[in-house]
Specification:
The complex is a heterodimer of chains A (about 160) and B (about 270).
Chain A: E1 2-4, E2 10-16, E3 19-25, H1 31-38, E4 57-60, E5 63-66, E6 79-81, H2 95-102, H3 112-125, H4 131-138, H5 149-158
Parallel strand pairs in A: 2-6
Antiparallel strand pairs in A: 2-3, 4-5, 4-6
Chain B: E1 7-10, H1 14-24, E2 28-31, H2 37-42, E3 50-53, E4 63-65, E5 69-73, H3 78-82, H4 87-90, H5 92-97, H6 104-107, H7 112-118, H8 124-131, E6 135-140, E7 143-148, H9 149-152, E8 153-155, E9 158-159, E10 166-173, E11 180-186, E12 193-201, E13 207-212, E14 219-223, H10 228-239, H11 249-271
Parallel strand pairs in B: 1-3, 2-3
Antiparallel strand pairs in B: 4-5, 5-10, 6-7, 6-10, 8-9, 11-12, 12-13, 13-14
The chains are: A alpha+beta (about 160), B alpha+beta (about 270).
Chain lengths: ~160, ~270
């Protein structure tokens, strides 16, 4: 059994964006803070810290989840992917990211990393979704500046719908 | 905000969990998906001394067909049950209710049993479990007991679980009826429901009507014949609804009055 006392720091290992990494954490550290502060993966943004806004969405073993409702301890030994994993090593945007740029689907960009990670999971399971299905998944995110029309246009371009 | 400090334990077996619960009791909280608990801890509404992480326990990660019931283990996520191939045929009510639970992203981590344990009065899974007259399986070092949904959830966020007990599974009865429907009204799809309504058609053609968000627990009534409106008016008079940040009691009563006949009709239509 893994046990860690509240004032204890332990080193945990995980796979982040395909690379084995390890860092120290204490039990109360949230995954979003662990990614940003201990692993310097600052692409993941922290918004509401209670699971509502969706900014901090990352993938654990391929499933899009809220990293603010996940403890760093819970990803010990797991495969975590963040927005940093999407573009090519040459910096070339992937199809989904390019569609966001083409359709002006972001303004300040604070919510964008979470939205991209949600749809990367969802579209891998359902590559030809209906508009309603896209909207349902998007309902798990809050965008404060552009509204959602540009985001929907980008998503439709990415899945090849009109 | 961030949670207050706590001790973290990740046991590998149910016996290890019940041993920890026997030691710490109400000081400990069970962490499965964390979609309610972690939010409450971040908001400092929950402050456990010990967090027991059960998400990786193999013996809790089953969806098992028991013939007349489907047993869902405490580590099974809502999206895993939603993707279970037998869902539509065996548990048609869950097939229509689960898409209303939170968002795609929270269903990826939130568990079926965790939602039952949290016992939010407007929550979809406790409402479905009550409508189907399902069961909750509890284990402690003292042994195992099985409670009916109506015995388990006693009030708003309050259950009959003792401090040393772990919910190991819930069991949904398999009903032969194909007619099931579910609808709710919320500020945004995936937010907490203001009023939620479940209906399923029995083999004899009568309906069972389950209502969430009107009282501290889900309320279930049998609807025989065509008297849906009378039954709903009776429920409105009896339950009255309650007022909170999201809605007045009057709005809740109006929502139920409008929603319930629609949902019962929809269940009948899909049974036909």
């Amino acid at each position: 059994m893994r046990r860690v006392n509240k004032d204890q720091k332990v080193r945990i290992s995980l796979t982040l964006n395909g690379r084995k990494v390890s860092a120290e954490t204490e039990p109360r550290t949230l995954l979003c803070d662990f990614l940003r502060h201990s692993l310097a993966a600052t692409g993941t943004h922290v918004g509401c810290e209670h699971g509502v806004c969706g900014c901090c969405t990352v993938q654990i073993d391929g499933a899009a989840v809220r990293s603010c409702l996940t403890l760093a301890m819970q990803v010990e030994g797991r495969d975590v992917r963040t927005v940093e994993s999407l573009a090519g090593s040459d910096g070339k945007l992937n199809k989904l990211q390019q569609a966001f740029q083409n359709n002006h689907a972001l303004q300040c960009g604070f919510c964008t990393p979470g939205i991209l990670m949600s749809f990367t999971d969802f579209l891998s399971r359902n590559p030809k979704p209906t508009e309603d299905e896209l909207r349902e998944v998007l309902s798990g995110h809050i965008c404060r500046c552009t509204g959602y029309a540009g985001i929907m246009a980008a998503l439709k371009e990415a899945v090849g719908a009109d | 905000m961030k949670p207050r400090p706590f001790d973290y334990a990740r046991p590998e077996t149910v016996d290890e969990v019940t041993a920890l619960l026997a030691e710490y009791g109400d000081e400990a909280r069970i962490l499965a998906g964390g979609q309610s608990l972690m939010a409450m801890m971040n908001l400092r509404l929950a402050d456990p001394a010990v967090l027991i992480d059960i998400a990786r326990i193999e013996e809790l990660s089953h969806i098992r067909d028991l013939g007349d019931k489907i047993e869902v283990g405490a580590a099974v996520t809502q999206n895993r049950l939603l993707a279970w191939p037998g869902l539509k045929a065996k548990l048609p009510l869950l097939a229509v209710a689960l898409p209303w639970v939170g968002h795609f992203q929270t269903r990826n981590k939130g568990t079926v049993c965790g939602s039952v344990a949290h016992a939010d009065p407007s929550s979809e899974i406790p409402l479905s479990l009550a409508t189907l007259e399902g069961e909750v399986v509890l284990r402690s070092k003292r042994g195992e007991r099985v409670l009916k949904a109506s015995q388990f959830q006693v009030d708003m966020l309050t259950t009959a679980r003792e401090g040393d007990e772990l919910i190991t599974a819930v069991r949904f009865p398999v009903k032969p009826s194909p007619g099931a429907a579910f609808r709710e009204v919320a500020r945004r799809h995936g937010d907490f429901a203001i009023v939620a309504v479940a209906a399923m058609i029995e083999a004899d053609g009568s309906a069972r009507l389950g209502v969430g968000g009107m009282a501290g627990t889900p309320v279930v009534r049998a609807v025989t014949g065509g008297n849906v409106k009378d039954i709903v008016e009776g429920m409105i008079a009896e339950l009255e609804g309650y007022e909170d940040l999201h809605a007045s009691a009057e709005l809740r009563r109006d929502l139920l009055r409008n929603l319930a006949p629609l949902v019962v009709a929809e269940a009948h239509k899909c049974a036909a």
